[in-house]
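During the no-cost extension, the postdoctoral fellow (Dr. R.K.) reprocessed legacy sequence entries with the updated structure-token encoder. One reprocessed record is reproduced below for audit purposes.
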Amino acid sequence: TGKELIAQTVHYQSPRSKGPFVAVNCAALPENLLEMELFGAEKGAFTGATERRIGRFERAKGGTIFLDEIGEMPLNLQAKLLRVLQEKTFERLGSSEPIKADVRIIAATNRELLKEVKKGNFREDLYWRLNVVSVKLPALRERREDVPRLVHYYLKRFNKKYGKSVTLSKTALTNLVSYRWPGNIRELANTIERMVIMADTDFIEDADIPENMMSEELPEPSADHGGEDLGNEVKNLERDRIIKALRENNYVQTRAARALGITPRQLGYRIRKYGIMVV
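Re-encoded structure tokens follow.
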């Protein structure tokens, strides 16, 4: 929905704008790596730690740290984050020396955190510590008036990146505005980049819009499988379910895996197996 863009805007229009802006996706790393990424590690803190590693909190000194997908953070790391908020200090892994945390924290999530609190998946004390100023960002489909501006922004960005001067027809833009964007701004950005890369001319027409965007829903299974054997039919059904789960969870694989009742590793294997493109 543009959470990181909003976080960057808050940062660059604040007294901390001259400091660094550091973003961390809490859903993208396993628990042991996430702790090291956030707080750093001393040399010898664990096997393979051959040098001191500076964490994101330390790198963000004087600026802002953006914790995306905070709802995916494991409970034991939530306790450590709570201590940072309360004490304004943290320690690197393998050290007991406190380091002052001079950062603004902006956190974002796709989850309903109060519901997660009731389920025992998120600490209530951390929720109230973080929830000082709350901003709700509607899904892109709920603010279609933003689509033309975002399309032109990304066209300019990717034209510059690839040395092109691609423009968009009015009908193509109308189709982009009418699309529901289940993947929100990430999907829009990837779509524009793909169209710029693949454009044979400097003008994008309706025919250049990716075929999957003409219908958001997966095709209904056909009653007649044309002699397709049971094995292939099962594979197709599994692939369709994976795509649907990814779309419904904004392409966050940990959440899609949970919805499917499998592990993220198993989901990753199936994504590669079926050649599914994840935006």
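The two ends are 14 Å apart (CA to CA). Residues 3-130 form a domain with the Rossmann fold fold (CATH 3.40.50.300). The remaining legacy entries will be reprocessed before the final report is submitted.
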